[in-house]
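User: tokens in, sequence out, please.
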């Protein structure tokens, strides 16, 4: 019984080592799309993690989804502000004598 548990723990640890050795290189997040790509990558990493339980995975994915939602909202707001600035500049130019 104990030998089986030890073998199971060793196999889990060896899988953990594999995931730690294959870390992706660091990348710069400059745009909202970069952030969303990074979050998508992290969600897939959480899903693939063999040593975490279902509840822990669900919590991590929920937190990542909340960040993604806020990033999407920020992107929408930034696009609207840019559009409004463009319209206001055009109006200002049209009203000049």
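Assistant: Sequence out:
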């Amino acid at each position: 019984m104990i030998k089986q548990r030890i073998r199971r723990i060793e196999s889990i640890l060896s899988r953990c080592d594999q995931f730690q050795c294959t870390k992706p290189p660091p990348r710069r997040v400059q745009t909202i799309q970069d952030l969303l790509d990074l979050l998508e990558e992290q969600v897939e990493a959480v899903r693939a993690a063999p040593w975490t339980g279902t509840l822990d995975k669900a919590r991590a994915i929920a937190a990542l989804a909340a960040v993604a939602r806020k990033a999407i909202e920020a992107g929408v707001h930034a696009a609207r502000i840019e559009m409004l600035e463009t319209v206001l500049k055009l109006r200002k130019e049209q009203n000049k004598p």
